[in-house]
Amino acid sequence: MSEKLDAESYLKSGSNELRVLEYQAAGMAFGINILKVSKIINNLVDFTEVPETHSAVKGMFKDMDRLVPVVDLAEFLGVVDENTKREKVIVTEFFGVLTGFWVEKLDWIHHFKWEDIIDAERVFSGIDQRYVIGIVKPTEDRMVLLLDYETILLDICPHLRTIDQQAVTIDADFTGKKVLIAEDSAAVRAMMVNEITERGGEMLEASDGAEAWRMYQKQAVDLVICDVEMPQMDGLAVTLQIRGSERPNTPVIVYSSIGDVGMKERARFLKADAHITKLNLNKLLETAVKLMRGEKITEIAPEPSGAEQPVCETIPLD
Known about the structure:
- It is built from nine helices and 19 strands.
- By secondary structure, it is an alpha/beta fold.
- β2 and β3 form a beta hairpin.
């Protein structure tokens, strides 16, 4: 089985489309948004085990000039099947951190609209489960679980949680400004609301892209901050709608855990004013103030890091 993803056409799409790479772990079907995939490793080489770490972290490997930790996803989820063999590594990049997820095999890339995603929180309705955030149905009799990979990474690397809790040093004044935030994570949304309201801003909050677009149509705002992955309408589709609206020049910041060059290029193509990777609150507030003063962000580019960021290119399945 082989399929190639035309990443360039998807990069430039504002169609509110979600493409899900289906894979298996312990015989179960899981999925990941292909925008979160940096590359697929078919044959893991230069692998080294690492002692005294999370039990699901099996080691690391060298990918060009980068060291990438490898997480046994089935073991992390507690669904280990000793009869299955891990053969593929899905490399992701969140919060500027590269992580490889060890899985059994890749199955297919499915095409969905965001409105087709079943909200797992509503399905489980109070049942304590942490990592399944959505469900898609490639066929009537099959379901694929979408995982919250950001939360998985934060649970493996708890020190990352403290980054957003550090004191914000930027001197940002939002007095008299109205800001619309579209973010499906209640914790991230509350954090941004708290920081902006403390600086005098008035907030409008939306938990999904469709709700944000409805709010935007009803009243003028000075700034929009939106996540990318959201139910009903993603943040890039929201950006596209704003640029075609009666107020097309409203500043838009895409604030996403997906920090690679491909996502930044897609945000630029759809005329977002800036793309900022989550867990960089100082940068977010600094950029917001500049945009509301009428300044232009000259380039949507990766935040500085110690390693070259991966580019989302064509992904072969074989």
